[in-house]
Amino acid sequence: MSWKKYFTPVDTSGKLSPISGAMSTGSGANPSRSNYSSYLPDIYAGHPNRLERYGQYDTMDTDSEVNAAFDILAEFCTQANEENGTPFQVFFKDQATQTEIKIIKKYLQQWTRMNKFQVRMFKIVRNAFKYGDSFFVRDPETQKWLYIDPSKVDKIIVNESEGKKPEQYFIRDFNPNLEALATTAIQPTNVNGGGSQFGGAYGSGLGGAGGSRGMVGSFPTGSSGTRFSENQNQYAIDARHVIHISMSEGLDNNFPFGNSLMESIFKVFKQKELLEDAILIYRIQRAPERRVFYIDVGNMPSHLAMSFVERVKNEVNQRRIPSVTGGGQSVVDAAYNPLSINEDYFFPQTAEGRGSKVEILQGGQNLGEIDDLRYFTNKLFRALRIPSSYLPTGSDDGGSNFNDGRVGTAYIQELRFNKYCERLQSLLNEPFDTEFKLYLHTQGINVDNNVFEIKFNKPQNFAAYRQAEMDTARVNTFNTMVAVPFVSKRFAMKRFLGMTTEEVAENERMWREENVDEDQYLSASSELRGAGITANGIASDTSALSGADTAPPPTEGEPAADAGAAGGATPPPAA
Asked: In this predicted structure, what is the pLDDT of residue 389?
């Protein structure tokens, strides 16, 4: 029974139908009509300021810590497979033949080389983490992936009647570059790499989503025509030819677009950025030491005292340079003396010790204290699950060493980070698996799609080294317990090796195949001989029997024993 039968059909006979012209949305309106204001396919443009966020992500990526963190994530998620030389690993669900295994491996390598995944996969995965989405157009003839800048994808048309299935992608500035395997080129007038070919940053020319709003904005409005119309330099691409790699499980509000990993660190990044600016300003403004001049003015009135102080300041900070002007008279010009801070000062004092003096005002203190900055940096790394040993920010963070996988060198942070990388890989596996199976179909390879699937290679997993150490300890314990005469080997395999009943049975079957005793074959031959078959084989016995059947009959006078011997039986004794 189809699940569509559980849904109420749309009533197009009256006020609910947009075709009849009655567009009233009264109390009896269907939820589809009241929610989407149309029964036509709906338009999804993602977050209201999705394009501006791409510009913010590019700005955040220029930070050294954020850039290094995303490089580590992409490197761990795109490990190369030493067996087939690709970033993928083939998992067989059922027993596959050797021919199928060779064909799949061969075409996987060919597909990888054709799309340059050895070089591009790192950037593909990194952009998916950075923007939340990665778009490609598949060439129908060559099956090559042509990259699309996420900022050039304006909207997606989905079919509500088919469960929000994407039908068309609206892409701006569609300009295929088959040499670089890209479809949208970055224009020289674009500062951040987005926008139209006429210049402008992300989101320019889209109505209400102006590029100056930062991380706030509204849905694009004010465009001419309907929401299905195409703007200038905008093309509608069939969804069958678009590959959409999304960092979304479908449980968020940004469908069909994904969520960037930058979202979780945006607030921390802004705090760290402001703190770095404050520290830099403090270093520049307050770091140098200053001098305080105490000028003795005696009993001068206030207005005369200030004039005297100004005169002393000019004497200290200026120098006199004689010059000859056009009048033929010698004058002295006053110019700023930049070396005044390095010169000595001379002030007169009275016998009582009165007079002007100069004291040094110390500059900023504790300029090397950056614990607050280190706090926000560690907070940013924790949001991305990056272990502190991978990007140490202090002397105490670099204590994790890799020493051939021995227990104790892999901290809990590394284990959690590998689980996090595997979870990110699970979001990206399905599009690559589907596209590779489609490539096999276009190449005329008839292999059941349910037999295998391709996945990214597992990241450098410290849990594997820990498991190897545990296996070594289990084997030592098992060898000790097998020596005990009253302990069953099967029980020891289950208890001390951790094997299940199915694994024990499989081990017994494979052991029999690998350890066949020749005595078993001899005993089987003896059993066959007991059934009337000699050791020479069935062929020789058959030929012997046929020779006995075609032997000439005995003549008169010959003993009947020969005939009995030919029959292979002893004649009965005479009565």
From this structure: 78
Report how far apart, in Å, the C-alpha atoms of 416 and of each of 73, 75, 227, 386, 419 are: 13, 16, 45, 9, 5
Nearest-5° angle of CA 434, CA 436, CA 440? Answer: 115
Strand order through the sheet with 234-238: 42-44, 153-159, 165-172, 234-238
Q: In terms of Cα–Cα distance, which of 98, 89, 93 is closest to 449?
A: 93
In single-letter form, the type of residue at position 109 comes to Q
Burial class (CB in 10 A: 0-12, 13-18, 19+), 224: exposed
Residue 530, number of CB atoms within 10 A of its CB? 8
Q: What is the pLDDT of residues 108-122, one digit of tens each?
A: 999 999 999 999 999
Name the nearest CA neighbour of 268 among 169, 108, 381. Answer: 381
**Counts for the chain of helices (H) and strands (E), in that order:** 15, 13
- Which two tokens mark 395? 């002397």
Q: Which two tokens stand for residue 75?
A: 């490197």
Q: Per DSSP, what are the bridge partners of residue 454?
A: 90
Contact residues for 23 (Cβ-Cβ < 8 A; gap 6+): 15
CA distances from 397 to 66, 392, 411 (A): 17, 5, 12
Distance CA 189, CA 202 (A): 12
- Sorted by sequence, the CB contacts under 8 Å of residue 411 that are 6+ apart come out as 387, 389, 400
Q: With contact defined as beta carbons under 8 Å apart, do 229 and 163 qualify? A: no
Residue where the block lists tokens 């940053």: 201
Amino acid at site 4: K
pLDDT in the model for residue 536 = 55
Separation between Cα atoms, residue 150 and residue 128, nearest integer Å: 10
Residue 404 buriedness (CB in 10 A; 0-12 / 13-18 / 19+) = exposed
Q: Residue 47's closest CA among 188, 208, 219, 183?
A: 219
Residue pair 193/58 in contact (Cβ under 8 Å)? The answer is yes
- Give whole-number Cα distances, 336 to 290, 312, 317, in Å: 18, 14, 6
Helices in 37-97 by DSSP H: which ranges?
50-61, 64-77
Q: Are 438 and 94 in contact (CB under 8 A)?
A: no
Positions in the chain short of pLDDT 50: 1-33, 187-201, 203-224, 398-409, 518, 521-531, 558, 560-570, 572, 574-575
**Which of 467, 500, 496 minimizes the C-alpha distance to 483?**
496
Residue 354 near residue 294 (C-beta atoms within 8 A): no
Cα dihedral 310, 314, 315, 321 in deg (nearest 10) = -150
**Is the distance from CB of 197 to CB of 173 less than 8 angstroms?**
yes
Quick one: which of 7, 26, 8, 3 has its CA closest to 16? Answer: 26
- Tell me how far apart the terminal alpha carbons of the chain are, to the nearest angstrom: 86
Q: CA 357 to CA 349: how far, in whole Å?
A: 9
